[in-house]
UniProtKB/TrEMBL annotation:
Name of the protein: N-acetylmuramoyl-L-alanine amidase
Keyword hit for tRNA processing: no
Organism: Nitratidesulfovibrio vulgaris (strain ATCC 29579 / DSM 644 / CCUG 34227 / NCIMB 8303 / VKM B-1760 / Hildenborough)
Residues in MurNAc-LAA domain copies: 380-531
Keyword Hydrolase belongs to the record: yes
Source taxonomy: Bacteria, Pseudomonadati, Thermodesulfobacteriota, Desulfovibrionia, Desulfovibrionales
Catalysed reactions, semicolon-separated: Hydrolyzes the link between N-acetylmuramoyl residues and L-amino acid residues in certain cell-wall glycopeptides
Keywords, comma-separated and alphabetical: Coiled coil, Hydrolase
MF-aspect GO terms: N-acetylmuramoyl-L-alanine amidase activity
GO cellular component: outer membrane-bounded periplasmic space
Annotated region (Disordered), positions in chain: 143-169
UniProt feature coiled coil, ranges: 2-32
């Protein structure tokens, strides 16, 4: 027993050190599998620890590790798993000193991270019933009363308030679709996109140099809920912005918290329409934003009226420059079957699409115009550096099932189907990052990705391709618009889509892909779709 305990003790101490080291290592802490590795250490120790004095602590650390992962992935499933583990501690070790801490930790996650006040209340009530004199009892009582008052808050905005935008659709909640930001030089702009007009207010809290507290702009949108795609937050390392978070812990209210590392003046205003956009601008230059408010003016609370403005001017919308990315190249041939080599088809297609776009008046840039290898990261970086307005990546698909054919258009998001995940996994294979890492990285990028716009572009390109290609004998049916975590689309600051022009593994489609007539038709179709998107934006601008 003594020998076993000493081995367990050593393993436990080692696992604790691993956890500590991981928390301090920003790079590794960004990777899901690193957390799961440490979690497995504690799970293994706990499994072997029956009767050992530290068994409850080992299980508690399983929960703690999962919570550490959840705080980085912001994935509700991870928070839920941490809650389950904490509850397991209390269930299996009711006499341990950690039991009430575990219940309180579980309740806190339910309340603050899972937006589930009723689950939190149940856990807290159980904690107070079973451990009324525990050291966490006061904290539980405090949270319990706070939770109740929150639950009484009205979920919908007052209908007769005309001091700011009010919902036109009765009680229907506005949906927060996307929060995006742009930092250029001394200026930062955060755009909050809602599907309809909503009542909102903001307050500015100046930073404190002595305590190092950041200046903070808080925007509350009443009666709004968040699209499930919106993630709770991301850190930004920049000269102006340092952090953007979305707080959904109060039902019927969406709070966007923007922390600035350095700000002189700021301005918040809305652009009417659907989508309805709230735009927060800030500058660290004393000369910028003459219409803005000085950041030194103290705490300010305003309820401004949303004014319609020229949306194109406000957001710098409009498509002038398009970057075309011919997939693969050089040492990376891409998919190969039936005499088709992906890197060759994509390069030929890129040139056809580029010629047509140039003729239509766009400025066209290419990630490659020769048969060279370009790492995936470099491709979106090129688009960002050249300030392209659109990024279009061209690829040829492949499948082990040769009966599958068709055109597909993707935008960056978590995979929408398992076959979409497979396509992403194949296209990502040239990168050393694995799919679970990408899912993790995505949670941070989701807020900055132009998901909504990219979905629009993808839809227009896809429908234009299916229409045009329908006339081809035995023409492939469109497989639709899908989302998947494509590494090549990550980090793009403009709407970005990936077009799979067909399956080389399908004999009939491979024959089509080899024909220059079919390639021209494909190029026409892609350009048509992009033109439709451009016209849609111009429609916004002239409205
Ligand atoms: Zn490819």
């Amino acid at each position: 027993m003594a020998a076993r305990a000493s081995t367990l003790e050593a393993r436990y101490e080692n696992a604790k050190e691993e956890l500590e080291a991981l928390e301090k290592d920003a790079r590794r802490a960004g990777l899901r599998h690193e957390w799961e590795k440490v979690e497995r250490l504690f799970v293994g120790i706990h499994k072997d620890a029956k009767g050992w004095a530290n068994a409850p602590a080992a299980l508690y650390r399983v929960a703690l590790t999962r919570e550490g992962l959840a705080r980085r992935s912001m994935n509700p499933a991870d928070f839920k798993a941490a809650v389950d583990r904490y509850e397991e501690v209390a269930r299996r070790y009711p006499r341990s000193a950690l039991a009430d801490d575990a219940l309180f930790a579980a309740a806190k996650l339910c309340m603050e991270r899972l937006d589930d006040a009723s689950a939190a209340r149940k856990i807290l009530e159980r904690q107070l019933r079973e451990f009324p004199k525990g050291d966490m009892a006061d904290a539980a009582r405090a949270m319990l009363s706070g939770g109740k008052s929150e639950a009484r808050q009205p979920a919908a905005p007052a209908a007769n308030d005309t001091t700011s935008g009010s919902s036109k659709d009765g009680d229907a909640l506005a949906v927060l679709r996307q929060v995006s930001w742009k930092v250029s030089g001394n200026d930062a702009q955060v755009v909050i996109e809602l599907d309809r007009e909503a009542r909102w207010s903001h307050q500015f809290v100046p930073g404190d140099e002595r305590t190092g507290r950041a200046s903070r702009l808080i925007i509350d949108v009443d009666g709004a809920r968040a699209d499930e795609k919106v993630r709770p937050g991301a850190r930004i390392s920049g000269k102006v912005l340092s952090r953007v978070r979305v707080d959904l812990s109060v039902k019927g209210r969406t709070r966007i918290i923007i922390d600035y590392s350095d700000v002189e003046r700021y301005d918040v205003d809305a652009i009417a329409g659907r989508p309805y956009r709230i735009v927060a601008k800030a500058t660290r230059s004393t000369k910028g934003l003459p219409e803005g408010t000085s950041a030194e003016a103290g705490v300010s609370v305003r309820k401004p009226q949303g004014k319609p403005k020229d949306i194109a001017e406000q957001l710098g919308l409009g498509v002038k420059t398009i970057m075309i990315d011919a997939g693969h190249g050089g040492k990376d041939p891409g998919a190969m079957a039936n005499g088709i080599v992906e890197r060759e088809v994509t390069l030929a297609m890129a040139k056809l699409v580029g010629e047509r776009l140039r003729a239509a008046g766009f400025k066209v840039l290419y990630t490659r115009q020769r048969d060279v290898f370009i790492p995936l990261d470099d491709r979106t970086q090129m688009a960002n550096n050249s300030k392209a307005d659109l990024f279009v990546s061209l690829h040829v698909n492949a499948n082990t099932d040769s009966s599958i054919s068709g055109v597909e258009t993707y935008y960056l998001d978590l995979a929408s189907t398992s076959s979409a995940a497979k396509v992403a996994s194949r296209e990502n294979s040239v990168s050393e990052k694995n799919l679970s890492d990408l899912q993790y990285i995505l949670t941070d990028l989701m807020l900055s990705a132009k998901t909504q716009e990219s979905r629009d572009v993808a839809g227009m390109v896809q429908s234009s391709m299916t229409k045009r290609l329908a006339s081809y004998g035995g023409a492939p049916h469109g497989n639709g618009v899908r989302s998947a975590p494509f590494y090549v689309l990550m980090g793009a600051r403009m709407p970005a889509v990936l077009v799979e022009v067909g399956y080389c593994t399908n004999k009939a489609e491979a024959r089509l892909l080899a024909s220059s007539k079919y390639r021209r038709a494909l190029a026409d179709a892609i350009v048509d779709g992009l033109m439709r998107y451009k016209r849609k934006l111009e429609g916004y601008a002239s409205r």
